[in-house]
């Protein structure tokens, strides 16, 4: 009799385990479907943005690429010149304004009083 009880328990465990496996497979399928829908939505958004990047002017379409070249350097003469010029001018103005009775300072957000 103990063997019959043990067999019944094993069958119940096998059935429960089988149900859990089926449920896990269904969850995995749902996740796969959600990921596929998200992927398709992202591709559709990329296609729309590519369509918006196209210029209506023919000469611009022929001369300006719609993608960025990651091999181009961003450290150009213009960047260094404008960066150094702004640093020199702003430091001069901050030093000049320091000698006022009510001190002013040029900050990132704009002009501020100390």
UniProtKB/TrEMBL annotation:
GO terms for biological process: transmembrane transport. Keywords: Membrane, Transmembrane, Transmembrane helix. The keyword Membrane applies. The chain crosses the membrane at residues 77-97. The keyword Membrane applies. InterPro entries: Oligpept_transpt. This is Uncharacterized protein. It comes from Rubroshorea leprosula.
């Amino acid at each position: 009799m103990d063997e019959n009880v043990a067999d019944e328990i094993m069958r119940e465990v096998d059935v429960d385990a089988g149900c859990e496996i089926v449920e896990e497979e269904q969850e995995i399928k749902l996740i796969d479907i959600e990921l596929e829908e998200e992927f398709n939505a992202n591709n559709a958004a990329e296609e729309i943005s590519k369509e918006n990047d196209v210029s209506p002017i023919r000469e611009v379409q022929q001369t300006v690429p719609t993608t960025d070249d990651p091999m181009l350097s961003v450290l150009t003469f213009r960047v260094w010149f404008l960066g150094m010029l702004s640093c020199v001018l702003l430091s001069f103005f901050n030093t000049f304004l320091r000698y006022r009775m009510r001190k002013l300072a040029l900050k990132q957000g704009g002009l501020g009083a100390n």
